[in-house]
Amino acid sequence: MVTIKEIAQRSGYSPATVSRLLNNDQTLSVTQTTRNKILKVANQLGYWQDRKKPAIAPSLALLFRMNNQEQLQDSYFASLKDALLETIEDAGMRVEVFQYAEELIDNAEDFQGFLCVGDDQVELSIFKRLHRLLPAGVFVDTDPLPHLFDSVQPNLTMTVRDALEQFADAGYQRIAFIGGVGPRIGKHPRRRDSREAAFKIVAEEMGFKQADVFSDGAFSVLNGRQLGEKAVKKYGDQLPEGFLIASDTMSVGVLQAFNDAGMIVPRDTSIISINNSDISEYVSPPLSTYNINQQVISRMALNILKDAIANPKRPHVHAMVDTNLIVRESFKLK
User: What string of DSSP letters covers 157-201?
Assistant: First the structure.
């Protein structure tokens, strides 16, 4: 069994200070750095394995990584950031927000773990440095580095399967997918998005007569419009009966392209989108879209992070949260 004396020796603080902190002595006054160092050593040595853990709230960082190039896409992640901050605040924990991983690296000793939100490019060497200093981390909504950190994401594979079942149940036989590609990790090529991969597999399983894919570039309004124009150029006025679009942001651009070509949704084709962002209710027509429950994702992310802090030697955890379809005017039942 790990002792107070062992933790004191490893951390460099007196046994009295260590004992008072680990027993949650509210009268103890120490710096945040001292507090975090003692707690990290206690977790690393497995101090809590044979003891009831007291309510010592960890200090957390929130890494909000946005490229600020697409306002509608950024708004989704900004909303997710707010949900995380609210969840952390409700749990009575201290949190500080950073924009750049390098900033968090410079201040790593002040924290026990971090949550990461956003879709900016991932520099592998930087995040390896962060992992060495602050190994307890959870990526929220994305999972670019599963070998280094935990993650919580919407279950987009099941979302795509459900969307294709919606099309099939409505009698659609000709469908298409419009999407983008994932963030770049270092110098490696951008990864193909899980929604595209799921669409190809499930469409083949379900035997659609036509299931084309238009996938490239960012999840942006501009790219959605460009891919929508490609679809119009390919099909003319004989669009597929339905489109599954990877995000509401892209759907806005696709609607612009279809409108410019004189194609009316849902008269000429139907659209099912993903995200249920605020804009989905106010475009014309309002989007049928899959809701991603950010509050549930936030709670799961925080719980997984607390577990990673308390159990630093456990395997990485990657959790999925199901979505639900909000039916609006862009999807027409035959």
Answer: HHHHHHHHHHHHHTT--EEEEEE-B---BTTSPPPBPHHHHHHHH
